[in-house]
Fold each of these.
Amino acid sequence: MKFTYNGTASTAYDLIVEHRPAHTTPQKVIETFSIPGRSGNLLYDTGAYENVTVTYQVAYKGSVRTNAVNMAKWLYQPDYCELTDEYEPLYYRKAVFVSPLNVADILGVAGRANITFNCKPQRFLISGKSAITPAISSGDSVVNNYEDALPIITVSGSGNGTLTVGDTTITITGMTADIVIDSERQTAESGGQNANSLISLSNGFPVLENGSTVISWTGGITGVQIIPNWWVL
């Protein structure tokens, strides 16, 4: 079996995954409050989850020193990268390698290591990386069978327009090219430049909640494309 990180498969370094990672459910972020004179804490569910760790136990043949140097160059990245494996081929994680790379030397001709990633709590569906098809028309509904998702929405048109996604209304002014609205990053871009000044949000960045969400638009908007970013725990 193999895993792929930042576009490179573990087999490129002659790694053999000996044991599949444990499936870990992320811990919910629960805040607790105490009230003087009252027994027991009050709980507040923030709706968020902690990161999880994913560990691959690997072995390989060859020079420990050479492989360790090459693996370090591959694994140490400055930000989250996509992580997939053959155990769960329908999903990917957003992961970063942060643990030390400790490689056990076996008689100078082989090695073993635990490769641990710090991952965002979501298991994202690979199918959710693609735009929803067929193309969305104003008034259509998007059905989400998973957790509440933070989509990437590309708005085409010119001038002024209004896009409504469920309970959120996005007012756009002065559009001259496509505007890409990224709900996870909470940014808007047009032509590779920040375009937050061109949008006004009535209820925060749009969310595709579990269930059905109506998408509609008016004014100079001529089309909308949605990458849903579906995910599960």
Amino acid sequence: MSIDDRTARAWLSATIEPAMPAVAALVAQVGAPDAVRALSSGRSVPGLRPVYDADPSATGRAVLSDAGATGMRWVCPGEPEWPTALDDLASAGDLHRRGGVPYGLWVRGERDLATLTKQVVAVVGARASTSYGDDVAGDLGAGLGDAGVCVVSGAAYGIDAAAHRGVLAVGGGTVAVLACGADVVYPRGHEGLLAWCTSNGAVVSEAAPGAAPTKIRFLARNRLIAGLSRAVVVVEASWRSGSLTTLKWGELLSRACLGVPGPVTSEASTGVHLALREHRAELVTNAAEVRDALAPLGAAPVDGVGAVGLGRTRVTDRLDPRELEVLEALPAGAAGLTAEQLSARTRLPVAAVRHSLTSLAARSLAACGPQGWRLAPRRA
């Protein structure tokens, strides 16, 4: 029996449940074609009932043909469009009896998947989200999109949808990873959102075309969201939220694990707060702090991350204490003060005041007029 790698992987997707560790290990050991030859002949592997297919090549080709007719394409490991970050799943172990590199990805959307996923952050959270969580997720998506970062999530109700909409609203790229076939609209209420994701990014799944969503496929899907990303951000999650599984996959894959705190009285944030308290996630509050968490060690802080992590960095944050004291002593009106008068106000030596005034003027914070020194008009 002859079968090529792409067709063999399509057969695996159509015939074998995604993310079975024993099957993934077999494919890694002998390659997809030999794995298919063994499995289609009834070879027993842990967790899998025997499968018999006299012509797996024909089955695989039929799946590829049917998917192509609906506008989907099949992207396999080693191909130019393959997101190489997913290869890290080979050594990440398993969780909830799921793991391993996917056999391939079914993709909808015209953008090249490898290019789209060069810099990716996952934003996930509760389906039963609060308005606070939706606002935060939307702001994170928009802020990351503005910075050229692709946002990946699961297209579910709640936080996932808010994150997708946030990045799409600013024209950024996004990837929706589904627990069903990439051609299946789930949830049904997100037909428009999934179409929007397809137009401005990609909708992907390792499940075969037409596959229905199941609990185990959601658990398998979460590892792909983490695997594609450089960081996993959980906005809202209760004690037993599936989003915490995505965060755990982030830990196993050595991704940056981040959490957004919620109100201490909010049930929707109890899981996030536990992860923060146990130091399994780093606290972030905005997109700039997420980007800062991804910056290489020793790099300058990302614009928007202040000394205490609130708001944008101000010019005055870079002033030394003497310059700041002189700046605060400057009048805002037309009447200015001399260096001597400022020295009397601040009790600093005149020479130190003059040096500070020169530095403040160079930063466009102070101006010298006919009546003396004052705040620069913009500063005033």
Amino acid sequence: MEINYILIVAFAFLLLVYLLFLHKVFYGLLKLKRNDSKNFPDEFVSIIIPFRNEEAIILNNLKSLGEQDYPPDKFEIIYVDDSSEDKSSDILEKNKSLTNVKMISVPDEFSPSAHKKRAIRFGIENSKGEIIVTTDADCIYNKSWLSSLLSNLDENSAFVSGPVEFISENNFFSNLQKLEFAGLVLTGAGLIGSGRPTICNAANIAYYRKVFNEVGGFKYQMNLSSGDDELLMQKISKDTNYEVKFSLNEKSIVKTSANNSLHEFYHQRKRWASKGLFYNDKSLIFKLILIYLFYTGLFVQLILALFLSKYFFVTFAVSVLLKSFFELQILIKGKRLLFKNLRIRYFILTEIFQIIYIVVAGLAGVFGNLVWKNRKIKR
């Protein structure tokens, strides 16, 4: 029986760690302030869009950016071709009629192991903006997206993370992903609100070039295939006196399509999970490991309940119910604050799906090789 008590205490500890994490996220959301200001910085803006094999959708992105209500003489759009194997570049070149749009290609020898990050860095080096905005070629935007996002930058704030939302394709899998992804975005927003910026999405961020240079840009990350968003945000938060903000405004939302298949979803989350162990904050890495152990512990409790003691059915049920209750509160708050079209009715199925993929993709992201846009990436 002693081993049972030890295990129960261990699972209770992991549950407490996770609930405290959710508490920080929820109250961080409460601290965020909506910004409806129509003022934006005076500095020139460079929008950097890395792309690879996007021939089917890149014109939708170009059209959406061309409809921005931001003064066209105040920003440039730079598409950076990262070794596309399709006709993306040709299609873009033939259709870019706007004077503030240009396309460049990354040389093969330019930081070959950094992949998407090398494309962003090459774009920055060939841009003239004092403010850098990064987004993706598979995104579409509200016409006030740029002005809404940049209204958060000022003399005290150097980095702003914007919301990203999956487009609902009116099928079960896309709706499941939309709700689950909203939870991730809200988690990032809540952590920013709580003063511990941890996660963001490179499809919708902006920062000052001078601060990017001040922290060394991607200098310490170029051996990694990802991290152009979170690692940079964390470094600015930790190593400078500037604030990191989240743009709590539906006009700031960037929309992109959900994954078409479970295979695509798995490799996407595997890539995202691969960044965690490279965070510079060791205490943050430790907390993430504890959270991962909490999720793994849910499976362990079920196994123990079957082969050791039925008491573990109780610990499992308590853990799942408390986890689900507090995560539901975060989603409800996020629906009120930002994502008006969330379909909460998918919540229970999303919970089950989330537990499985976090355990599987988390482990694979640490030990396995990665795949992005038909490109195999070694860790």
Amino acid sequence: MQLLLKSLTHLPLPVLYELSRALFRVAYYVFRWRRPLAAENLRNAFPEKTASERAAILKQSYRNLADLIVETLYGYGASAADMQRRVRIENPELLRQCTERGQSVVLLAAHFCNWEWLLLAAGAQLGVPIDAVYKRQRIGGFDRFLREGRARFGGNPIAADNFLRELMKRKGEVRAYALVADQTPLNRDEKHWSRFLNQDTAFFVGADKIARILKAPVLFVSMRRERKGFYSARLNLLAEPPYDRSADRDNGTEIIERYARALEAEIRASPADWLWIHRKWKYAKPLYA
């Protein structure tokens, strides 16, 4: 599998986009892969939209996802210069101001636009080691392929189950810690509940805790699709130290709530660019949460 995937990274992007069109047709029309789930998520998130408006968003989201898959393959073989050209980071100086003060930074992104290219472009442009949390894959060859691809320009993918240990090892170093923070915690995990896209929604609280441990500023990374194969990204300050110690003791999650609000604004501005097929709403909010 790893050999096949690596061979695809050497194909020109126009050829890969032909593969994207085929992937879209098969997933959307033939297998209807997770379409009922995605349609339900959109219906709950945008009750004010008409059925035809939601259907158009749904279809475009599958097209975007197919493009994301082939763009990821291309990115794992592209040059650093090409990634810088295709993902323009508008204000990298915001992060550099933090690192020049000797502060590590927490970067919060989402399954929005092309998060794979975002990591590659950040590694090529920002000039700071980036530890990126990821979910370990069950298939060993696929897991190695992802880790090697994401690490090409200085990124350091760390499996979520090893992250806290690795974080403590590097606590004294100036680094960036990147989290795609819109995944859903397990029901038994600690979580923050927010009203998000018209629904009670659980979020991981790890980013809040990491920021307080490191006394690190937290930046939300917004992303825009400029045209096919080209994106822009902007760093937005969510929070910065000194943090309130009493809020830390009381399990404060102000940073996570700010992240939820920033992400919701991004999704409402361009709903087809979010990953509607993931199971964000796996369980209901407990009565006394």
